[in-house]
Design a protein that fits this description.
The protein is α/β, with parallel strands linked by helices and about 425 residues long. It is about 45% helix and about 20% strand. The structure holds iron/sulfur cluster. The site of iron/sulfur cluster has 13 residues, from loops.
Length: about 425
């Protein structure tokens, strides 16, 4: 019988992450977001506002931060955008939003970071794309100017390679080298090699220019799930820099969500990845914060982080008598999510709570008992009663037309009683 234990050992999501990466600090004021080492995997996001619209950008940054984004990247593409950055920072500080801002630079970052020191200072991290810093002999000089700014202002840097803007001179050189091999590799491994070489060699160059390895984070983004897994497995073997993960151009809606989840889950489960972003294309009318929700859910589903109480719900089936069950699930989920910006401070630990909303007696009571608080709604042919379970015990049975409202009140009271004791002055 003991032989069976190997198969029965649960995966320990809380086990220390195995990759011994450097730990970077991305700071603003008193806020210090650690990335890599033994720090939790961080959630990042990016605005889609015009940075020149400082108020609009500050509002979106605030929304992303309140949704759970621990760093927010903004485009810094023109002198006007660079001028707006300190003003955006000031607006955020006034609103009490201390989320670190990351500046996204392409082509002219060397000029913007040099000519607009207030921008360089207001940002907490610079994203540099080695494929877009300049060509030929300008490349190292312009890259060096950006690293100089990072050293001067003591900022972290993400060296972010993307296969859509890969350094073409480097790729051509590696292709030539490959053609001289006795048995040339396929084109794909050469492309992987170019992505990784671009990132790692740029990081080494930054180090040689005085940037400590602890201030460097790398990423090599591609848009194919299997490509991303292959590249990051290899990259994680090549260096100790903290790694930012993301499937670039993931797409829209279900496709983008599933593709990002599939790729990131495999890598995170292997201990690869220190920060993540889900690059969703928003559906018309969809909030930008959806990418933060998905990133958080990936980490929470893997048991790596807890952001918001989780709602376990059955899919419903022919035994489900009405839409009450779906409505209640949505209502509770929306309510918990909406309360989190306040509860995070008021009720520490509430994010790990589990709520169950179940459609009938088949799995309802059992699943409800596994949750901290659960409700089993009546299915077809059952008496119109909804037993509520608290900490595994049946507590009360709700009846009538106000089950949803009454259950929400029970959840609120439970949270206040269980997590409210930790309220700090
Ligand atoms: S718990 Fe009941 S309603 Fe929900 S899926 Fe199972 S059998 Fe169907």
């Amino acid at each position: 019988m003991d032989d069976a234990m190997d198969f029965l050992t649960p995966v320990d999501a809380a086990a220390p992450r195995v990759r011994n990466s450097y730990q970077a600090h991305v700071r603003w004021g008193a806020r210090d977001v650690t990335v890599g080492g033994d720090a939790p995997v961080r959630v990042q996001s990016m605005t889609n506002t015009d940075t020149v619209d400082a108020i609009g950008t500050a509002i979106q940054v605030k929304e992303l931060a309140l949704a759970g984004s621990e760093m927010v990247r903004i485009t810094v593409n023109t002198p006007e955008a660079a001028q707006a950055v300190p003003y955006i920072r000031e607006q955020l500080d006034r609103m009490g939003i201390d989320v670190p801002l990351v500046g996204d630079f392409h082509y002219n970052g060397h000029r913007l970071l040099t000519e607009f020191p207030a921008c360089a200072e207001a940002l907490s991290k610079y994203r540099i794309n080695p494929g877009n810093v300049g060509k030929g002999d300008k490349r190292d000089r312009q890259f060096g100017q950006m690293i100089e700014a990072a050293v001067r202002w003591n900022k972290a840097v993400r060296i972010g390679v993307n296969w859509g803007s890969l350094d073409q001179e480097l790729l051509a050189g590696l292709m030539d080298e490959n053609s001289r091999r006795a048995v040339p590799w396929d084109a794909k491994p050469v492309m992987y090699q170019a992505l990784i070489t671009s990132a790692v060699e740029s990081a080494r160059l930054a180090e040689s220019m005085g940037l400590p390895p602890e201030q460097i984070i790398l990423s090599c983004k591609v848009s194919g799930v299997q490509d991303l897994i292959s590249v990051y497995r290899a990259l994680s073997q090549r260096c100790r820099y903290a790694l930012h993960l993301g499937l670039t151009e993931a797409g829209m809606g279900t496709k983008g969500t599933v593709a990002s989840s599939a790729a990131l889950a495999v890598l995170l489960q292997e201990g690869i990845g220190d920060t993540i972003r889900v690059s969703l294309t928003p559906q018309p009318g969809e909030a930008r914060t959806q990418e933060v929700v998905v990133a958080s859910e990936i980490l929470q589903a893997l048991g790596l982080r807890s952001f918001v109480p989780s709602v376990t719900a059955c899919p419903g089936c022919g035994r489900t008598t009405s839409t009450t069950f779906q409505e209640l699930t949505k209502q509770i989920d929306d309510f918990l999510r909406a309360q989190m910006p306040v509860w995070r401070k008021q009720y520490p630990g509430v994010e790990a709570m589990k709520v169950a909303v179940m459609g009938c007696i088949v799995n309802g009571p059992g699943e409800s008992k596994h949750a901290d608080i659960g409700i089993s709604l009546p299915g077809t042919g059952e008496a119109p009663a909804a037993p509520v379970y608290i900490d595994g015990e049946k507590s009360v049975t709700l009846r009538g037309d106000n089950i949803a409202q009454e259950f929400q009140v029970i959840v609120e009271n439970y949270i206040a009683k269980r997590f409210g004791a930790h309220v700090t002055a």
